[in-house]
Amino acid sequence: MAKKLRILSIDGGGIRGIIPALVMAEIEKQTGKPIAQLFDLVAGTSTGGVLALGVTCPHPDDPTRPRYSAADGVRLYEQEGRRIFSRSPWKRVTSLNGITDEKYPSGPVEAVLKEYFGETRLKHALTDVLITAYETERRFPWFFRSNRARQNPEYDFLMWQVARSTSAAPTYFEPTKIDVPSPADYYALIDGGVFANNPTLCAFVEAKTLQPKTEDILVVSIGTGELTRPLKYTEAVNWGAAEWVLPIINVLMQGVSATVDYQMHTLLPPTARGKQRYYRFQAKLNEGMDDMDDASRTNLRVLKLLGEELIHQSGDQIGKLCRELVKE
């Protein structure tokens, strides 16, 4: 008999990743177990990919346990957010706020990721992970898969490189270039959010591929906040390419996330006995909270409060989920 499949998926959303990090920390707190022991597959896009790698990264002194807890992920945003999203006044002027060049230099974010993951490789993940990116020269979606990395060294990359690739959001950071043995030469990668900001469906397909006979599936999807700030017709009707550059990114990411949520509700409805198979935890963002790169103390506090409110409002669902996760 095929075993039960437990899948965790984490959306992209920049600094707003602190919201799913808080939800994950609550799950670890209630179950008394790390995420890597609770799920068979952890998927993530962009900031969600960084979190997915963080909670599955093995500890250097004991490779059987995770190096970071979900609570450490919360602290990553609090302590390193302003360092990642930092730029000089000259960069601000020359990039025209991300229109003529990337908004932020790559040095700070790469330094943080190297410090965070060290020399740990994708194949070392404590449970299977699926991280999204997009290859710009070959023009196809790219999936970093720990299962594949363990089987083929050519697809095994340093975790910091994977994290950097999945979070290379267009207009915010320059693409990532990963050198590989010939004939591929190198991969040019950008944020997986351009096609799968909510990677839940990608994770579902990956799990079904790994265990095609399994019907007992539990999927948990955590968002980084639903955008609510309107793009008013009276303003957008006169926009050209320059004005649409940043708004269209949010439109694409929000549209994808909502569509995948609908698809998963359809694919995994409750069983005939009423057993829930799909959980989605998502907060609503009030106006002014939805910027992906606002790492100010004020906004981080607002996002934390929003995450805490989500946990409070979803208390029954989280409790139900945690009981299901620890059930033998």
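(the above was protein one; protein two follows)
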Amino acid sequence: MKKILYFAATLLLGLTITSCDKEDIGGTATESMAGQWYVTIDAVDDSGNPISGGEDYFGVGRVLFLTYNTASNSPTQMWIDDLGAFDVASTYGNKAYPNYAIKSVVNIDQNALTFSSSNAENHAALNSYKSDVYGITVEQGKILKGAGRQNNGSPADSIVFYVKYTNDPWYPDDGYAKYKVSGIRYSGLVEND
């Protein structure tokens, strides 16, 4: 009887230890570049300097922006997505304004932490307002590890890229060459919001 109890206890202990093992799930193929960011958008000249009145050009302030993997989980592409924050027409309720919302796939180089696209399709939700800004060209996109600062002073990754829109109705009359989107990684801490 002692042998049976000893065998049962050993078997039960083995099952308990085995059931505690966790499976390593792993990340996505774009994990090094994926994230949530707080960004602003400025209207800039060819050199990347804000034009007069170009800082926070759309007047929407600092907004949440996402970078994430594609459905195919490709290591050479990712989505960039402003969650509709730059849809100026809807923000101001003015049908004469364009929809500058960004949701597009860009090509990435994970070793250099860079990204770009050339006249890529804009998948941002169309609305009842003016929607003639379809293609997006992304230039000089880069994620810089530890180059930014949170509100509490701690280091944060930063993101920066330039975007041009096909059929941009405000270009070149408003005097800018492109838009600069820049910001820092979302920390999850209230003190940094």
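Reviewer note on protein two: The mean pLDDT is 86.
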